[in-house]
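Class prep. Protein, please:
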Amino acid sequence: MSENTAAGSAPPAAPAPARRRTILAWALWDWGSASFQAVVTTFVFTVYLTSGAFGEEADVSAKLGTALTIAGVAIALLAPVLGRLTDAGGRRKQWLGINTAVVIASMVLLVLVAPGEQYLILGLVLLAIGNVAFEFASVSYNSMITQLATPRTLGRVSGFGWGMGYIGGIVLLTLVLVGFILPDTGWFGATSDEGWNVRIAMVLCAFWFAVFAIPVFIAVPGVPADDSSPVHGLASGYRELFRSVAGLWRDSKQTLFFLIASAVFRDGLSGVFTFAGIIAARSFGFEPQTVILFAIAANVISGTATILGGMVEDRFSAKGVILASLASIVICMLLVFALAPLGPWVFWAFGLAGAAFVGPVQAASRSYLARLIPPGREGEIFGLYATTGRAVSFLAPAAFTVAVRIGGTTLSGVLGIVLVLLVGLLLLIPVRRSSKQAPV
């Protein structure tokens, strides 16, 4: 598999620009899917599941980590193969629909998870299933970007999708907080008794995702089957996967190098969000409601910056956006660490400044990779993109923990995350494009 056109064959024609309403329909899936990422897995349901009602906190947290680890292994093993199968069979949109439906169903069933140790396993299983299905759906969803954008508009379209995801998550998170979490009696008369406020909120999140996922299936066309593909099942899929990795090493090393670099710096970005709340609370004295307000502000800023970053990317380059953004995040985090004695305003100022660069890195990474992928291999390579990201998901937590142990304070963990981001940045610098590729 080469990143250049095969010798002796004409280069594929660039796709015609998609209508704005088609791009909007595609991006609405991102808007809706944020209900799972922002509300279920980050701010609301996992917090509820690790409360004292389900058992001793450390034990419950360990079981949650185990469940998500098992889900991550399943994703790592299956995502690239399923991506290749969907490409070969022309079933990209169908599998997006199937996996989206599984995510929504798992969210609806969370209403059954009442506060009690006997319901913990049910909650963990539903979270794991939802995570696996969400990652599989994301492979198909990310692959669609090449149907919607030309080489000149990839950054703008990718940034718009990421931005919609951020903003959609914040809108829904605000609705859930105002309507279910903060008041004594929320919408639909739900109270915190038996966890009904959280459980009903999960049904609302499922409905939100279902409604906003519909447009992509109506507006975005399917892709034709590849009758020449040797992939017809899991066994042949794995065989072709190993051939693809070997082919990347032989013919498209830059794509492979990018996958490795992006895996590292994307895990660093994950660490930024995972530990930001802990650092705010433990090192800067933020109250829980202040942490939530900071999270909302950070995501709004990041979402807006993502949309603007896509426009900058199309004018300059995706790699330039990634490098500049990573460097800016590192500088902001170092300032948070160095100026911490001056008070909470330091975290507000430089934490929010750093948040402005997170979204542009994520969006530019997706469009950068899309420019490197040979036509017809989108599902396969985006599957590898998901796999490599999962394969090093231990880096940021490990670096954070080691830094805290050495430094003796939670604030020291900032340096661990900075180290991961710097390694990813340094790995990306030597990645280059072929002279026959569109600018990246």
In short: The domain at 18-219+230-237 is CATH 1.20.1250.20 (Growth Hormone; Chain: A;). The chain has 16 helices and no strands.
